[in-house]
Amino acid sequence: MVTGKWFTHIFKALKRKKVFDILSYALLMVGIFWVVIRGAENQGYFWQWFRIPRYLIEFDAGTLKVGPILEGLKITLNIVWISLIVTYAIGLITALMRLSNHAGMRMLARLYLETSRNTPLLVQIYFIYFIVAPVIGLERFGAAVLALSIFEGAYASEIYRAGIVSLNRGQWEAAHSLGLGTFHTYTDIILPQAIRRILPPLTGQAISLIKDSSLVSVIAVYEMTMQANAIVAETFLVFEIYFTIAVVYLILTISLSQMVNLMEKRMRAQV
């Protein structure tokens, strides 16, 4: 009976803490919004939020149509999901090369990492679009995906490597004692355990990729940021448009974080 009351008390305390956290976050957002509004008004800026809905959805001859911002969002999502797959593939291959016994592979992986991590993404986008893409026949979209994947893959590789080396050496010894080769040791023993540990940092890398995708607008890929730039140039709705796409990016990243949190809980439940 005492134990039941104790659990009930803990549950209520956690529930109150969650409500308090939500209220605190909401108040913080309201405060930031108020500061931005006041700052813009002090500069003589007149808000025109009523003009924003037409750039999200609009009615044309009684038909509901997607506005330019949501059209750009579709391109952004296409870039992101393809880039994520390629990023994680590059990251895993590079991590395995770093852990290889072959000195040449380790040197090649190290050269890629140092080059990619120590040069700006913007420079890499220009380099791939103007130099690499014409040689291999890539269009703007493909060049954007390749540039993002190469840049983010370098960071993903270090996350993979950290997860792999964090496992106890006994896991390798047990796999070898069962007669498993290197390939099956990785696929059956090492990677399934490492993925559980590195899921949060991999999610952080995915969120970084979503935000970095806005940079591909510099090569005229009409994703969400490029659409926003075009609207701003036409209407001068600087704050309204950029705040709108900031909210869209925020919704994307928070949704991804929540999805991964659910995956983590299910994975813990299965252990």
- CATH superfamily name of the largest domain? MetI-like
Alpha carbon gyration radius: 24 Å
Percentage of residues in strands: under 5%
Low-confidence stretches: none
Q: Which H/E pattern describes the elements?
A: HEEHHHHHHHH
What is the highest CATH level, the class of the largest domain? Mainly Alpha
What is the CATH topology of the largest domain? MetI-like fold
| Outline type | globular
Number of domains: 2
Name the structural class.
mainly alpha
Total count of helical runs of at least 4 residues:
9
Oligomer kind: single chain
Number of beta-strand segments: 2
Largest sheet data: 2 strands, antiparallel
User: What's the N-to-C terminus distance?
Assistant: 30 Å
Helix content class: over 70%
List the strand order in the largest sheet: 1-2
**Mean pLDDT score:** 85
Give the key terms.
mainly alpha; MetI-like fold; 2 domains; two-stranded antiparallel ribbon; 9 helices; 2 strands; 79% helix; globular
Would you give an account of this structure?
- By secondary structure, this protein is mainly α.
- The protein contains 9 helices and 2 strands.
- It has a two-stranded antiparallel ribbon.
- Helix 2 packs antiparallel against helix 8 and helix 5 packs across helix 7.
- The longest helix is centred in the first third of the chain and has 41 residues.
- It is globular and about 70 Å long.
- The chain starts with a helix and ends with a helix.
